[in-house]
Design goal:
Number of strands: 8
Number of domains: 1
CATH superfamily: Alpha/Beta hydrolase fold, catalytic domain
Mean pLDDT: 96
Strand order of the largest sheet: 1-2-4-3-5-6-7-8
Strand content: 15-25%
Largest sheet: 8 strands, mixed
Order of helices and strands: EEEHEHEHEHHHHEHEHH
Radius of gyration: 18 Å
CATH architecture: 3-Layer(aba) Sandwich
Structural class: alpha/beta
Length: 284
């Protein structure tokens, strides 16, 4: 009798795969035990497969089948980045359907949360549970200002010779600086088979899509019945923390966690506390 192959629960070691659907070659990674509903991860603005914190992915993959993927035109995926969040949600639906899943759980961060909301409003039967972090509702106040905030922090980071995410995701006090450096370090743990960087054109297209999302009419989230966990830092400059409270009010029965002295990347700063909470929520 042969021993079963060990289950890979390390995101740094998960191989990159390709799936063609709807004329797009999506690239993705999967890890954790197969069987049951997978947890599909929706990532943030300008992010590729290499931008997920392995401390969070690995924690969930210990008990769940985890799938991360590149949207159309992002990283090593083919095609051009869509000009709207709605189109990104349509692409996510195409990708999940092509994998053969009729129902999934979602783990999202920032722009990924925008996409997930549009997806679940249009296809409520597809989603069982959602984790929405560092995000806000369609038409949320000041979401459209993300363009100005992003470019300003990119300039500041360039002057300081560091990764823009250290400014965009974390407070600039001693605690936030240390958390930012640690986060960037964790993103470099994968040594081989790293993803292609986001293109400048694709990044600019995503920014415009977010701006339109922020300036559009609100979606009706009162109809959502999916158990939802919402989390953020208490000083999010990209998607203001008040919008996490707004989501909590709009989605009945949702749970809300706000981490102190932290920004947009609050779940990454508090990964040791948040990862087991998210894993428990998704595993109930």
């Amino acid at each position: 009798m042969t021993n079963p192959l060990p289950i890979n629960t390390s995101y740094a070691l998960a191989p990159t795969k390709t799936l063609s659907a709807g004329g797009v070659a999506y690239t993705y990674r999967e890890l954790g035990p197969r069987g049951g509903l997978p947890v599909v991860f929706f990532v943030h603005l300008a992010a590729t497969l290499d931008n997920w914190d392995p401390r969070i992915v690995d924690a969930i993959a210990r008990t769940r089948h985890v799938i991360t993927f590149n949207q159309r035109g992002v990283g090593s995926a083919s095609g051009e980045v869509p000009g709207s969040i709605e189109a990104m949600a349509d692409d996510a639906y195409t990708f999940i359907q092509a994998l053969g899943f009729e129902k999934v759980d979602l783990f999202t961060f920032s722009m990924g949360g925008f996409i997930a909301q549009d997806l679940v409003v249009k296809h409520p039967e597809l989603v069982r549970k959602m984790v929405l972090t560092g995000t806000g509702p369609r038409g949320g106040r000041d979401i459209d200002k993300v363009v100005m905030t992003t470019y300003w922090d990119m300039l500041r980071a360039g002057a300081g010779r560091c990764d823009p995410k250290e400014y965009l995701f974390f407070n600039r006090d001693a605690v936030g600086r240390a958390a930012g450096r640690a986060f960037i370090g964790r993103l470099q743990e994968r040594q081989t088979d790293r993803d292609k960087a986001m293109s400048v054109k694709g990044f600019q297209t995503q920014l415009k899509a977010i701006q339109r999302y922020g300036r559009s009419a609100p979606a009706d989230l009162s109809k959502l019945t999916q158990p939802t966990l919402i989390a953020n830092g208490d000083h999010d400059r990209m998607v203001p923390t008040a919008l996490s409270h707004d989501l909590h009010r709009r989605i009945r029965g949702s749970e809300l966690i706000i981490y102190p002295n932290s920004g947009h990347g609050g779940i990454f700063q508090y990964h040791a506390e948040f990862a087991p909470i998210a894993a428990e929520f998704l595993g109930r």
